[in-house]
Amino acid sequence: MNSKSKPVVEPKPIVVPAKWGLPYAEEPTQPEQSYIIAIAVVTILAWQTDIGTLALMPFTMLATWYHEMGHGLAAIFLGAHFEQLVINADGSGYAQFSGADNLWGLERALVAAAGFFGSTAAGCALIIASRRKLATQLALAGLGAALLITTLIWVRSLTGWIILPAFGIAAIWIAFSRRRKLQRFAVEFLGVQGAISVWQDLDYMFSDSAAHAGSDTGKIADVLLLPHWFWGGAISIGVIALVWWSLNYSSKIDA
Known about the structure:
By secondary structure, this protein is mainly α. It contains 10 helices and 2 strands, in the order αααββααααααα.
């Protein structure tokens, strides 16, 4: 008797959700999710020392840009005028805006908090964008364009004119390259730098205005009454929650 041969069915490949830093998880040797978290922790610890700050100076300046742009854009949104952004050679910086006297107390507190949550929101948006290839490319190109445009409009320091456009050009080049693994790692790494920029200087974050001239948590405490250390802790908890959610969300990659 002749029997019909059964078609050979090849088993479907098992695709594991991708880990941070790589686009697909078809290889068993991909780094764990702790890889990017470890970089974030090392960066935060390094920022608390003079040597670490110096070693990470370009990323320290990028973190300053994230933070100060949060202040400046919040000021614009609330009706003030963003005058300039200065980044110093030691990685510090400030955003200067006029019309602050016309802001209510709560609005001034929001401008102060925007340096923390604005940078975190931008960083988390970059991390989430890593979930899809097109979103990753658009996010990198958008970040690069933002660095170039804001440098042209607001930055008023030689250090900023050198470092920020360099980051912007690099981000745009990666966005239009065909190196998917590099794109995913870059958007996550730069996103993490934005998200953790709130802890660039823990002494500043947990100081009041009197102890540390013009500290943001001190300005919030002046308006909302509760002590500066409370706001430093509350902001830290909120930032950790946002970063943790964005990292877990981005690990469930679609394409």
